[in-house]
Amino acid sequence: MSSTVLVTGGAGFIGAHLVPQLLDRGDRVRILDNMSRGDRGRIAAWVATGRVELVEQDIRYGGAVHQAMTGCDRVVHLAAVSINKSEADPYESIDINVVGSNNVFKAAADHGVRRVVFASSASVYGDPETLPMAEDGPLHPLTPYCIAKHTGEQLLDYYSRRSELSWFALRFFNVYGPGQKPTAYYTSVINHFVQRLRAGEPPVIDGEGAQSMDFVHVHDVARAIVMALDADAARADVPVNIGTGIDTSVAELARTLIAAVGVDVEPQFRPRDVLVSRRAADISRALDVLGWKPTIDLRTGMQDLVDSEIA
User: Which of 112, 175, 205, 214 is deepest in the core (most CB within 10 A)?
Assistant: First the structure.
């Protein structure tokens, strides 16, 4: 059944992959975005279909959020200030990521929205004590961004207990793919390696390259969001990891990208003390609750990224 979905931050990286999936299944989409980083050309093409509306506003303004929420059945909340900017300006981070999120959730509850899907983050775990990282494991958010994501989950729980609203907080791991900004905090290493490889230079790795991440393709992330919009309300009101369950070391990433770019170089290792951290998601809840599992493996995804015009 088609519906009207409000997507905050829908002009951004994940929105660029989510909105087409929503349109393909017959939904109407209202994008609430301040367009500080959005692609106006892409938005204009969507609006021209007659099924997408842009509300150029900021989630910090409660009245604007309430107005944008009118007539929407479901909500995807993507809008946020990134993790690196949150440490540079904690005030703005709390203002947007906590106050803004509260505006979205409160408006959703007031308007009788039945489902909110919130873009949370694996950063709520901090440095994991064990792998894989499970939703019920210990949380140690370390920055204003991470703290705000955890707070957002708690706010959703608060409003769901006082309304008909149900929710999923999708804890995204290291999201990558075509269209990502070069400055993306957790995956900037990809862009750095690709730039060097395209210049015929080897990637330079600190230490032995044992530090790892769980890279999940943005197409699969968008799929997870769509599936969370439809999932059974009886299974809702929980956080859900969205990753691959595979911890890919920086050294392995470098070799995968060397093959994708097609250059004959070897990674260079820069001896230095490095805090080796590892990340890998326990994705059993995603399969159980959403019916979701990743479909794009690292090699295919990195080739897709390298081949894209925006990579």
Answer: 214
- CA 150 from chain center: how many Å? 14
Write the DSSP assignment of 99-143 as a string of letters.
IIHHHHHHHHHHTT--EEEEEEEGGGG-S-SSSSBPTTS-----S
Range 205-229 average pLDDT: 94
Structure token pair of residue 230: 């439809």
More confident residue, 230 or 81: 230
Q: Top-level CATH class of 176-214+245-281+296-307?
A: alpha beta
Q: What is the dihedral of CA 14, 230, 165, 217, to 10 degrees?
A: -20
Candidate list 61, 91, 125, 145, residue with the active-site label: 145
**pTM of full prediction above 0.90:** yes
145 belongs to the catalytic site: yes
What residues contact 99, with CB distance under 8 A and at least 6 apart?
Answer: 60
C-alpha–C-alpha distance, residues 113 and 187, integer Å: 33
As annotated, the residues of the chain forming the CATH 3.90.25.10 domain(s) are 176-214+245-281+296-307
Between helices 250-261 and 188-198, what is the axis angle to 10°?
A: 40
- How, if at all, do strands 268-270 and 204-206 pair? parallel
Stretch 143-165: mean pLDDT, rounded?
95
- For domain 4-174+217-242, give its CATH number from 2.30.40.10, 3.40.50.1820, 3.40.50.720, 1.10.10.10: 3.40.50.720
Query: For 67, what's the count of Cα atoms within 13 Å in the CB-facing half-sphere?
Result: 12
